[in-house]
Amino acid sequence: MSPEIFAVTGQRVIAGRLLQASDGERADAPAVVVVNEALAKRDFPGQDPVGKRLYMTDGTPATIAGVVSDIRNFGPKEDPRPEVYWTASRRVRGVSSFPVMIRVKAGDPRNAIAEVRAAIRSVEPRAAAFRVRTMGEVIGESVDRPRFYLALFAVFAGVAMVLAACGIYGALSYAAAQRTQEFGIRSALGSTPRQTLTLVALDGTRLIALGVACGLAGAAGVTRVMRGMLYGVDPLDGATWVAATSVVVAVALIAMLFPAARATRADPLLAIRAE
Questions:
Q1: Domain spans in the chain, listed from the N-terminal domain onward
Q2: What angle do CA 141, 36, 70 make, to 5 degrees?
Q3: Mean confidence (pLDDT) of the chain
């Protein structure tokens, strides 16, 4: 690779230095490489890896000149793997291909594909450039499956929210209808609409509290499944749980207010005669 690769990827120097063009000028000179932080932690825990030696894939030794920060080359879900970087001018036996990364200043990066192919052929006519993709496409492919699963979860969650609201509304409406005579008697004896509303609201609040408790317990059990589908987000994130619970409670309260308000408008005489 060229020494400018780290500027393209945005990797920063942790220790030592970056690769230089002079590192691969002499084929008989000792190999100089740069490693990432994951390799340094795995192979040199608690040590300064700069100046240490390792063996390349062809068995030749190489000296570590620097350590750079990690990047997720295998997708956002995968932890950074140990990696070794060396100059493209130094050939390593067993390595016949390497990636080329190009950063464009502005515009659609696809417009530069033809120029890049022409530049590669001008250097090596036999070289083949394959799997040419933009970084947006690379990132999109790595998250396609999690994005699909999360979209399904969002649809199911929306349907569950609607069903929960309809269920609460139906249950409270039925409960209020069953107590029509009671409300009429209470109203005839001097009970105010606010008192009737409070009575219905308390009954609904108990149901909501019971449902939220059961829902949180069930959600806590699903976190093990969700943990494998999320990256960069804790399945037990407190803010997310509070927001989701607040939305459920708000929907339930709205569904509860309609039967409660209807109960306060009951005619005492008609309510007492109702069967």
A1: 5-101, 143-273
A2: 40
A3: 78
